[in-house]
Amino acid sequence: MSLKTKALSEKLAHVARENAVAVAEDVPVGIALNLMRERDADCLSVCRAGKLVGVFTERDYLMKVAGKASSDEPISKYMTPDPIMGRLDETVGEAVEVMNERHLRHLPLVDEKGAPASVVTVDDVIRWLADQYPAAVVNRPPDPRTEGEESDGA
What we know:
Elements: H1 3-9, E1 22-24, H2 29-39, E2 43-48, E3 51-57, H3 58-65, E4 80-81, E5 86-87, H4 92-102, E6 106-110, E7 116-121, H5 122-131, H6 135-138
Parallel strand pairs: 1-2, 5-6
Antiparallel strand pairs: 2-3, 3-4, 6-7
């Protein structure tokens, strides 16, 4: 099966690495940042009544909050509202297309009810692509006419 065919059939549910880290839209920025640190998350799903209404990323913090905002202000003031969303049953190919066209680093995934389920990142897609290549291809020296100085392993 070609890589293109795999990308058009592999569901995002199998590519996404982790569950969404969700917060309510009225959570203070300081608490949201602590949660991001604790969960090692680079993206928060911001919810209203259990449905995704925004995302807040490390980039949002750097560009909108750092040095400018009080940690008591609600996350909704700094989130990206009405984010582009994907679904768990969409394919890697569909996600790559949307992420490329819209210049997204994070694509929040929602379930059939609109609740946050996961987040797919550019890194997730790259890892999935790298996993599709055999180790012999991935571990080739930069110039195929040369050999490595040392063999891999013990």
